[in-house]
Amino acid sequence: MKYADVLIGSQSDGNSGNLAQLLRIWTAAVTAKGQARRWVRIRSERDICTAQALYKRVAHASLAYWLDDKCKPCNGTGASLASLHDCTACTGTGKAEVECAGGFERERIKDMVSELAATVARHAERSRRRLR
Q: How far is the CA of 105 from the CAs of 3, 47, 53, 109, 121, in angstroms?
């Protein structure tokens, strides 16, 4: 998905059904991780609704960031287009900052992005072993 099919913000003709399925699977995984890690204490019906909304926001934001984490002002190069210095938006890393209203949610999004990266790394290692 990340490299071949559909990129967020692109005009490609990729299969949007794959993205929808990935989002459903990822939302279920984030919900399970959020419940296991007790992101929200469930004491009432309202807490259940709050937790579900949090899980959905974190799933959507983490998947969107993972699919397209390039800094927009420098287009992921890390260099300012106007000068020869580092991009001020990403401080030369080429990666955009996770945009979110609150620190609690931002940390959960970053955590889930690292989970996605770890999953890709595990699959890549498994593929490398099979190709040997």
A: 26, 16, 11, 6, 24
Instruction: Give the per-residue pLDDT at 122.
Output: 92
pTM to 2 decimal places: 0.78
**Strand, helix or coil at 83?**
coil
Would you list the DSSP string of 11-67?
-----HHHHHHHHHHHHHHHHHHHHHTTSS---SHHHHHHHHHHHHHHHHHHHHHHH
Instruction: State how far the Cα of 107 lies from the Cα of 13, in Å rounded to an integer.
Output: 33
Residue 89 has pLDDT above 50, yes or no: yes
Look at residue 8 and tell me whether its pLDDT is greater than 70. no
Which pair of tokens denotes residue 69? 């984490």
3-state secondary structure of 107: helix
Place of tokens 């990822």: 26
Tell me the residue type at 81: L
